[in-house]
Amino acid sequence: MTVELDLNVLLDRINPGRRDFLKATAAGAGALAAGGLVNLSAVREAKAFAYEPYPRDDELTTVVTSCAHNCGSRHMLVAHKKGDVIVRLSTDDGRYQEGGHFGKDTLEEPQLRACLRGRAYRQRLYSAERLLYPMVRVGKRGEGKFKRVSWDEALDYVARKMIAIKNQYGSTALLDQSYAGASYGVLHKSDQIEGLLGRFMGMFGCRTNSWSVPSYQGTTTSSRWTFGTIEDGNEDDTYAHSKLMIMWGWNPAYTFHGGNTFYYMRKAKQNGCKFVLIDPQYTDSAAAYDAWWIPIKPNTDAAMMAGMAHYIFTNNLQDQAFIDKFCLGMDAGTMPEWTAHSPNGKENFKDYILGTYDGVPKTPEWAAGICGVKAEDIKKLAHMYATTKPAALKASWAPGRAHFGEQYNRMAAALQAMTGNIGVLGGCAEGVGKAWHAEAVAYPYDQYANLWFASIKSDRWAHCVLNYPNVKREEIGLWPRQDKLDGVIPNIKGIFWQGSDWFNQLTNINKEIQAIEKMELVVCMDSTITPSGLFADVLFPIASHFERHDVALPWYKGHYYIHRPKVIQPLGESKTDFQVFTELAYRIGHLTGIGDHFGKSYNPKAGRNYFNYDDDVDEAYLREWWETKVMAHQHVTMSWDDFKKHGVYKFKLDQPHVAFREQIEQGKPFATPSGKIEILSSELAVVDDWTRTRYGSHIPSIPKWIEPTEYLDSPIAKKYPFHLISPHPRWRTHSIFNNCAWLRETYEQEVTLNASDAAKLGIKTGDTVEIWNDRGGVVVPAYVTERVHPGVLVLHEGAWMDRDAEGWDRAGNPDFLTDDAPSPAGAFAYNNAQVRIRKTDKAHRPGWDQLATSRSHVFRRDN
Amino acid sequence: MSEEKDLDKIKQAVKRRKKEVYTPVVPETQLGFIHHNVDCIGCRACEIACKDKNGLAPGPRFRRVMYIEGGTFPEVYAYKVNMSCNHCAEPACLPTCPTGAIYKRKKDGIVDIDSSLCIGCRRCEAACPYGAPQFIPEQNIVSKCNMCVDEIDAGRKPYCVMACMMRVLDIGPIDKLAAGQYETKAMAPGEQPVRAVKNLADPELTKPSIVFVPHSKGKVE
Q1: A665 assigned to some structural domain
Q2: For residue B61, which residues of chain A lie inside 8 Å, CB to CB?
């Protein structure tokens, strides 16, 4: 915008005798509606305001869509566009839903208001990092030198290379590292299991799958063992009914699993609910809900929970009727007979807690010695939890992202069960927390979906590549098969990243950097360049979710669908993932002599012109999905055309959705082998050869405290005395949005440490520090506070790596420090890394001009 | 050495000068903000919505969520104070403007800067005790929150309010808000808003059109 000063107007203003400007500003004022602001019939003022010329919302084209990145929630975005450019975004204001009007925001149908990340989408969409053309690498791998090529050249190169790799190395040579980063929709989907890439590579006949989920594998495995499902979540609105909410490692002020979780919790607070936070950090959630903060040493949560269980059992505060009716292996009375002869299932939980087997009662005093929480506080919390009804113990994912993280989640499930807080309104069985079974797949989902020829723990790929062929199946968590491929170690020679920045996001990046040297083909499909993309051979520019037709839904909570039309035409030469895979399938078919067969089977509704024109085909898939799945299975009567017109469909539930309500109220069996809540896992009880399981090593059948390899009291802490945790940031979604300047203004990538530690080390807020261990080192600014447990460092995950010549990451990505050895059940070890820290002369490189953008410190005050 | 100054005379002169330059507009209804300092999760969605709405480059921030924390481990506390322009009853910025670019709307008391008149002298920036005016170097002008007058005139609420995920930020007639008589989700039943919290300039300076539901540690005696 240029500023043109109109001299006559200026003279009017500075010479009051010429005209009374104040009078002019007040002219034509529309009266406010009595008692309120909303008066749609108000006469619009003729007076120009400050930023004229400026298009008002009502003069722009308005399109309802949603955000689309890898967080658990999904919120409405409303694009206001001029021509084919989105000039601003707003969010749900109640107008768009059926029967809606401006300002409608009820507890039954709350507005789906987007968070700061969603509101920053224009900066991601129109960023300088946006990929607009296919590119191929011309420099060394990782050097970041590419040249622009035609789609024809890029696709042909990839198709020929895929065929050559499969022919030479076999059906496990291509590694699928797709993830949910760029494209959470029902049609254009990137995912480890349900994604478009998995089906494409599976049909091609060459795919090694990555089975463990970085975010929550410990939790997932625990929920499946205990309840037989990951759908152990209550809908958001149930929180408003809790009398006590224990947030265990949970920070809903930062991470979202539902549309309005945090808001319903505010309602709970207003209803008199008491909040407790167990966390190494005093988070914004603790502040907002005025919680009792219990600081805990990281990775000792299972010990504290065992101490609580001991208090509850020894004071006879457990809900014995609930245990007797619904639980397996909670105590001697709920042990099935067969386990006495099983290889791994002879112990019950209560006797473990009481110390019957090992002579160590897991008393609150015992737990206090491990977790650092005073025994008195453990008892007080246990008493509160056992005697307040209903009470929600929300066991979040973060403490489970550690060695033996699954034990924490299973221990939580045992507490939830022994207090009878499962299946009741205001209680909680989470866990994973998936609260509904959405109809989530609109593309062909058939016998080829998630077809794989080897499947490994996701964080073991570098270990597998670097040690091939001298790798044991248990080292990489090889998933058992029933055919001759069982136990065959994959010889990985190529990687596909679809909607995935895994190279930047998995553990122990330095090991990955060694491993990627051995790859013969690395393909990255994304809408922007990413740190992973810099290591690719071929970059495919992918249309963002504003540039393709889809429907959005939240993963876990919030019963709603949001229509996502093609708001603008794809930027540059970008194409959708679906278009790229379809065209690759045609090309591979022709190169291998099967003609159109592959392409036609991969995308049955499309012809080969799909690469250039996708509107009708995408519409057909989505309409079919809506009519045959959503309308047929979910009691939805709104037609597809009406849904498109409104842009959003919000379910109204007859009663708040509570997981396992049917099991508790109506006696429906749980989906476990025994039909009970399995505190003792039937699956684990019968295992005798752990190397032939995907776990690779022994796991007890009941929840136990198991000392992890790295924590504040482990031997390695003598060398590396600080425990680094790497929680999810608020200002990014993993690594997504790291390049958005507006969001940079709200934060700095910085390490948080306790003031007493900082005083000993001579570190002040704003000092640059280096943090290192045997795996790597990073350079970041420090933030000194009283809000974190002494001995703990907090460094948020997702910073875009930026290595110097010596291998220090100047951007501060914690995954240069984390361990790539996962827990047996698959949990990533993101939250146990012992490190050292000191002041440094090395410069931090935030990736942008620090002075021009980041100002978060300015607003911090003490007292 | 000069004679003793007649303090009363000086006061009279200052008063006269002030009066000659600017008589505050008395709006028909003064709109203002309410913010719940405790229930705010500090997500800054309001800030980003504002940046997007106003097309701001990195640097200027019309709305700023301040993070306040204190105490000693493990007895700590934290709260947020969220502020943009307070559309003061007696705006300190307005009389400093040499071009008359700053004005206060008669109908709702919104204080705005006409960017076509601003010469970027930044006097208003220095005068405001709340840091509301923001310099935009690319355009050499000062800009600030205008409470989204376009939305207000269309009968809606500003972008920041409509962005608030926790519904702790709202606008309304400030006298009703201050008296706790305006129905809003920003405060819970039984809560009483206040005009001043710690770490902020004395509201008597400019009579800002904003009230807060304070944190116990943020209360001003």
Answers
A1: no
A2: 745, 855
Give CA–CA dist A22/A238, Å, rounded.
Answer: 52
Q: Write the single-letter amino acid at A281.
A: Q
What backbone torsions phi and psi does residue A408 show, to the nearest 5 degrees? -60, -45
Q: Which of residues 741-800 of A touch B (CB under 8 A)?
A: 741-746, 754-756, 785-790
Chain B CB contacts of A86 below 8 Å: none
Q: For residue B175, is pLDDT > 90?
A: yes
Residue B207 neighbours by CB distance under 10 Å: 15
Residue (of A664, A679, A682) closest to A337 by Cα position: A682
B11 in a domain, yes or no?
A: no
Asked if the model's pLDDT at residue B23 lies above 90, the reply is: no
* Residue A647 forms part of a structural domain: no
Q: Å from B113 to nearest chain A CA?
A: 5
Could you tell me if A254 and A389 lie in one domain? yes
DSSP-assigned letters across all residues of A62-110: EEEEE--SSSS---EEEEEEETTEEEEEE---SSSSTT--TT---SSS-
Per CB-CB distance under 8 Å, the chain A contacts of B67 are 856, 859-861
- Where is the domain boundary, A125, A154, A179? A125
Could you tell me if B59 lies within 8 Å of chain A, comparing CB atoms?
yes
| Residue-level pLDDT at A464 | 98
A15 touches chain B (CB under 8 A): no
Q: What is the pLDDT of residue A827?
A: 96
Query: What is the domain-level CATH number for residue A771?
Result: 2.40.40.20
Number of structural domains (chain B) is 1
Q: Quick check: A119 and B171 CB within 8 A?
A: no
What distance in Å separates residue B194's CA from the closest CA in chain A? 18
The pLDDT assigned to A42 comes to 37
The pLDDT, as a whole number, for residue A39 is 37
Q: Domain for residue B4, yes or no?
A: no
CATH of the domain at B210: 3.30.70.20
pLDDT tens digits, residue range A234-248?
998 899 899 999 999
Nearest CA distance, A1 vs chain B (angstrom): 7
Q: What is the pLDDT of residues B120-152, one digit of tens each?
A: 999 999 999 999 999 998 889 999 999 999 999
Residue B153 in contact with partner chain A when CB distance is under 8 A:
yes
The answer to whether residues A330 and A418 touch, using CB atoms and an 8 Å cutoff, is yes
Q: Which residues pair with A833 in a beta bridge?
A: A724
Residue B18 has a pLDDT of 63
Q: Which residues of A682-697 are buried (b: 16+ CB within 10 A; e: fewer)?
A: bbbbebeebeebbbbe
Contacts of B9 (CB under 8 A, 6+ apart): none
The enclosing domain of A143 has a CATH number of 3.40.50.740
Question: Whole domain around residue B110: which residue ranges?
Answer: 28-218
Give A210→chain B minimum CA distance, Å: 33
- Least confident range of A626-630, B56-60, B165-169, B174-178: B56-60
On whether both A327 and A250 belong to a single domain, the answer is: yes
Summarised one tens digit per residue, pLDDT across range B66-101 is 999 999 999 999 999 999 999 999 999 999 998 889
Structural domain harbouring A581: 136-211+448-547+577-613
Q: Which of A:249-288 have CB within 8 Å of B?
A: 252-253, 260, 262-263, 266, 269-270, 282, 284-288
**Res A849: pLDDT:** 59
Residue A381 forms part of a structural domain: yes
Answer yes or no: do A13 and A154 share one domain. no
Parts of chain A with a pLDDT under 50: 1-48, 853-863
Local structure of residue A809 (DSSP, 8 states): B
Tally of domains within chain A: 4
